[in-house]
Design a protein that fits this description.
Elements (H helix, E strand, L loop, with lengths): L2 H17 L8 H8 L3 H13 L3 E3 L6 E3 L1 H14 L2 H15 L2 E8 L2 E8 L15 E3 L3 H9 L3 H10 L2 H5 L5 H14 L2 E4 L6 E9 L5 E10 L8 H22 L7
Antiparallel strand pairs: 1-2, 3-4, 3-8, 4-5, 6-7, 7-8
Helix pairs in contact: 1-2, 2-3, 5-10, 6-9
């Protein structure tokens, strides 16, 4: 990798690490750790990015947060890439119908990114997912359902190099992921039975682009006793119906996330 490309890569990793700590922000040390970069390097990058308002310091703290210029750039990019407008009423409808927290996530490379959260009426909620949260494919129900709908060769290539168990525990060993994929393909929707946080369950359905590629996911999350064996199929069927309708809507708009 040449020097300009390497610099862009370090900037990208640093910004992503900052984004992972929104809205409270994080110290330079924490951002360097998450970005996998030396602290002095990250300090220089963040200081430079602060000069063009891509990041800023939280008043009275040493924490860095994303800056206002990123928001303005995002608004401009939204004209081309935004899929949240048609997804918003779907997510709200799911939250109202079930009382659970509902989400819309997008696939970005080998991760899912939560774009929308809408809480239902039930007062006890799961906080694993939030707007901006990123998880690898195969982790949380959105990542499970998208991975399950990829071709077998793509799945095996991914599992051969993705060590999910190292960060998320033995319940994410490759053999367990394959078992969840088989179950997801059988039912059409994925179920996360408290694999990331004990007692926090989720179920998700994939949303497809015009080419039939899984690009997004609709998710419902809540506490374990709300996801009974009797209720889970009802939630799954509801998600599948809404996901199918949203797939058709997004396909009609020609929406795609630009990265497969």
């Amino acid at each position: 990798m040449n020097a300009p490309q390497d610099l862009v890569g370090r900037i990208y990793r640093s910004l992503r690490a900052v984004a992972g700590h929104e809205p409270a922000g994080a110290t330079t040390t924490a951002i360097a750790r998450d970005a996998g970069l030396p602290r002095p390097t990250v300090h220089r990058l963040l200081t430079s990015l602060q000069g063009v308002a891509l990041v800023e310091r939280v008043a009275g703290t040493d924490n860095w947060v994303l800056g206002p210029e990123l928001y303005l750039l995002g608004v401009a990019a939204a004209r081309r890439y935004d899929v949240t407008e048609p997804a918003m009423p779907v997510v709200r409808r799911l939250a109202l119908a079930t009382g659970e927290s509902a989400f819309f996530s997008a696939r970005r490379g080998e991760e899912t990114v939560c774009l929308i959260r809408e809480d239902g009426a039930f007062p006890i909620r799961s906080h694993v997912l939030y707007e901006g949260a990123r998880f690898p494919l195969g982790v949380v129900s959105a990542g499970m359902v998208i991975l399950a709908h990829l071709p077998d060769a793509r799945v095996e290539e991914y599992l051969a190099r993705a060590d999910l168990a190292a960060e998320y525990g033995p319940q994410h060993e490759a053999a367990e992921i394959r078992r969840h994929i088989a179950q997801t393909r059988r039912y059409g929707y994925a179920v996360n039975p408290g694999l990331v946080v004990e007692g926090s369950w989720g179920t998700a359905a994939a949303v497809f682009d015009v080419a039939g590629t899984p690009r997004w996911a609709l998710t419902l999350t809540g506490v374990e006793h709300r996801f009974t064996a009797e209720r889970l199929p009802q939630l799954g069927e509801l998600l599948l119906r809404e996901a199918h309708a949203l797939s058709e809507t997004l396909a009609g708009r020609g929406a795609a996330d630009g990265r497969g």
